[in-house]
Write a structure and sequence with these properties.
InterPro entries: HAD-like_sf, HAD_sf. Helix 1 packs parallel to helix 6. 37% of the residues are buried. It is built from 7 helices and 10 strands. By secondary structure, the chain is α/β, with parallel strands linked by helices. It has a domain of 87 residues. A 6-stranded parallel beta sheet has the order 7-6-3-8-9-10. A two-stranded antiparallel sheet has the order 1-2. Strands 4-5 form a two-stranded antiparallel sheet. 32% of the residues lie in helices and 26% in strands.
C-alpha cells in the first residue's frame, strides 16, 4: 500500500495500480526496458493490472515473468470496458495511468489518475480527466516509488 497525506485533500491509501499498455508502458507494442524494474519494485506495495487492446499482439510476451495481471479488452467500447474494470475494486484504492482517449473514464474513476504524454502524445480527454500529468511513465513511477513527491503537485 502507498499511503500519503496530501495537505488540503484526503489521505491516499492506494493498493491497486491500473495501467494502459501501448502509449503508456510501451511504444509500438514493445515495453520500455526502464518499466520492467519499476513494475517489480512497485509490485511490493501495489497490485498491478494492465488493461490493453493489445493492438500489436505483444502484451503477453512483453510482460512475461513480471508481477502483473493482464486484461486484454474484448468489447467494442474500450473506454467503458476499462472504466468498468475498476468496479471490482474500491475506487479509493486505485491509481490509474494512461494516455489515450479510451483511458479518460478510467482516469476519472480512479482515486488518483495520472496522464502520460509520452511518445504517442495524449488525448485531451485523458489529460482533463487526470489528477496530474507527467511527460513519461518513468516520471509517474517515480511519484509512486517516492510518494512524497505527490504532495507538491496535489496539495491545495
Amino acid at each position: 500500500m502507498i499511503q500519503m497525506k496530501i495537505p488540503g485533500r484526503d489521505t491516499l491509501n492506494l493498493e491497486i495500480l491500473i495501467l494502459d499498455f501501448n502509449g503508456t508502458l510501451a511504444l509500438d507494442g514493445k515495453m520500455f526496458e526502464s518499466v520492467k524494474d519499476s513494475l517489480i519494485c512497485l509490485s511490493k506495495s501495489l497490485q498491478i493490472h494492465i488493461l490493453t487492446s493489445d493492438t500489436y499482439g505483444t502484451v503477453e510476451r512483453q510482460c512475461k515473468g513480471l508481477p502483473v495481471q493482464i486484461k486484454v479488452l474484448e468489447s467494442m467500447d474500450h473506454t467503458t470496458e476499462k472504466a468498468d474494470y475498476l468496479s471490482q475494486f474500491n475506487t479509493q484504492e486505485i491509481i490509474a495511468i494512461g494516455n489515450g482517449a479510451n483511458d479518460h473514464l478510467m482516469l476519472k474513476r480512479a482515486h488518483l489518475g495520472i496522464g502520460i504524454i509520452g511518445f504517442e502524445g495524449a488525448s485531451v480527454q485523458a489529460l482533463l480527466s487526470a489528477d496530474l500529468v507527467v511527460n513519461k511513465i518513468e516520471d509517474a513511477f517515480g511519484l509512486l516509488i517516492e510518494p512524497q513527491r505527490l504532495k507538491a503537485t496535489l496539495r491545495r
